[in-house]
Design brief:
Elements (H helix, E strand, L loop, with lengths): L5 E5 L3 H12 L3 E5 L18 E3 L1 H10 L2 H5 L3 E3 L1 E5 L5 E5 L7 E4 L1 H14 L3 E3 L3 E6 L4 E5 L5 E5 L2 E4 L6 H7 L5 E16 L14 E5 L4 E6 L5 E8 L12 H11 L1 H4 L5 H7 L3 E9 L2 E2 L3 E3 L2 H4 L8 H19 L3 H33 L3 H16 L7 H6 L5 H19 L4 H4 L3 H13 L7
Parallel strand pairs: 1-2, 1-12, 2-8, 5-14, 12-19
Antiparallel strand pairs: 3-7, 4-7, 5-6, 9-10, 10-11, 13-16, 13-17, 14-15, 15-16, 18-19
Length: 454
């Protein structure tokens, strides 16, 4: 389709690059402006290449862009969680039914692939262009590069896909009656590495996400194609223990040796990584409206930054792109209708996954290694297999379906109430798979028949 509209996309990150491809496919002339240098020509700084968990919703966006098959070649399936207890005991929890899994992908590698594909579609990407001001009335964006050189560009439509600290959103915050909130967890994160074995072999189970849950904090590890694992320590900023309290090499070594003994044995560069890699913050951003006069729209983290504990930040942003693609077709490029419906559909979903992500942090950090939690998940999986229309586990609703996040959140709360009653049944540890338990659970589901359509 031929389209004369000029489009500016702020940010060439994952969502911005995918968005630019989709808009180009709809006939728009797209120019992307990125504050950083071209990451394809620069070494990704240590500690900033955290892996992503690509799942169902994300694949939908990549499919529209025509890159699904290419990314599958560099994705490592992770079929479940492997929990590492402090005493060395290992337990396993599958993520879904047979054939359902999430995928470990390199953030940098995926971003580079998307940018290259965007350019192949005719998208112009301008690097070293930091947006410093957006003239909302006239749709002009003013830029500055590292040397201080100033420039500007105008367009019919502007999309702010410039992340949690969005310059486009900042401009909206200065308008009248704008709702905005940001909140930080008391925890931050730091990237660490488990090296590959000889001949790029994996020192841990390759097709799993590894978790070392320790109550107030945790370590996770995702596999890389070269046999290494990218680890992330989620740890309090302050208090004891915390990033603030570990001040020298001996303290770091002693702490990890006592709390993550099996991981430390695989991390010869631990101490150097700990002190040389940056400490990141974990932010949730909520705002409204996401649009201005049908000329500017926020998307991805710029509209709804979330913490990473459901692995849905990128997947949610890619789902944004897929929804927008469908609305452009539905409303035939009438942006007053597209923007209004986009926000109506995606704002509740974004608020839902923001709550779910924090909730899942508590689950991963505090619960995943506990026998009661594992038993509960086993009961849910068995019941779901027997009555798939009555019960879809929350993780599966979020990760392996298109059910809107806020509906999954509501259904998850309904399921929690049922499971509280099931787990309180006498001798549940031994009778969990009995007909009595199954019948009781079935009766509770039927009695509370406001379940969503699965």
């Amino acid at each position: 389709m031929s389209n004369n509209k000029q489009v500016i996309v702020l940010g060439s990150g994952l969502v911005g690059s995918l968005l630019s491809i989709i808009l180009t496919k709809h006939g728009y002339k797209v120019s992307v402006y990125e504050r950083r240098l071209d990451m394809r020509k620069e070494a990704i700084s240590a500690g900033r290449s955290i892996n992503l968990a690509l799942s169902h919703r994300g694949w939908g966006g990549l499919r529209i862009a025509g890159i699904e098959d290419e990314i599958k070649k560099v994705a490592i399936p992770m079929h479940g969680r492997v929990m590492h207890a402090i005493d060395g005991k290992i337990s396993y929890q599958p993520y879904g039914k047979e054939g359902e899994y999430i995928n470990s992908v390199s953030r940098g590698g995926l971003n580079c692939e998307l940018m290259t594909l965007a350019e192949q579609h005719g998208v112009e990407i301008n690097f070293n262009k930091r947006a410093v001001h957006v003239d909302l009335k006239n749709n002009i964006v003013f830029f500055e590069d590292e040397s201080g050189y100033k420039s500007q560009a105008s367009a019919d439509l502007i999309f702010g896909s410039d992340g949690a600290y969005s310059a486009a959103r900042l401009q909206l915050q200065l308008t009248d009656r704008y709702n905005y909130s940001q909140s930080y967890l008391e925890h931050g994160y730091k990237e660490l590495t488990i090296n590959a074995g000889a001949n790029q072999t994996f020192k841990l189970e390759k097709n799993a996400l590894h978790i070392w849950p320790r109550g107030g904090y945790m370590l996770i590890a995702l596999p890389n194609l070269d046999g290494s694992f990218t680890c992330t320590l989620f740890f309090p900023h302050q208090g004891k223990p915390s990033f603030e309290s570990l001040t020298n090499k001996a303290e770091v070594q002693n702490f990890f040796t006592s709390m993550f003994p099996d991981a430390v044995a695989l991390m010869p560069n631990l101490v150097n990584d700990f002190f040389s890699n940056p400490t990141g913050s974990l932010i949730t951003v909520k705002c409204a409206p996401w649009t201005f006069e049908n000329k500017l729209m926020l998307i991805g983290d710029a509209a709804h930054a979330i913490v990473p504990f459901f692995g849905q930040g990128m997947n949610c942003g890619f789902e944004d792109c897929a929804v927008l693609h469908n609305l452009i077709t539905k409303h035939n490029h009438q942006w007053n209708l597209i923007m209004a419906e986009f926000e109506k559909l995606r704002k509740p979903a974004a608020d839902g996954i923001a709550e779910l992500a924090v909730q899942n942090f508590i689950e991963m950090r505090d619960l995943v290694g506990k026998p009661e939690f594992l038993l509960r998940k086993k009961i849910e999986a068995a019941f779901s297999q027997k009555f798939p229309r009555l019960w879809k586990p929350l993780y599966s609703m979020v990760t392996f379906s298109d059910i809107p996040y806020h509906q999954a959140l509501a259904e998850g709360k309904r399921q929690d109430a049922i499971m509280e009653k099931i787990m309180a049944l006498p001798l549940i540890e031994t009778n969990w798979d009995s007909d009595d338990v199954i019948n009781k659970m079935h009766a509770l589901c039927i009695a509370n028949n406001d379940t969503i359509v699965l």
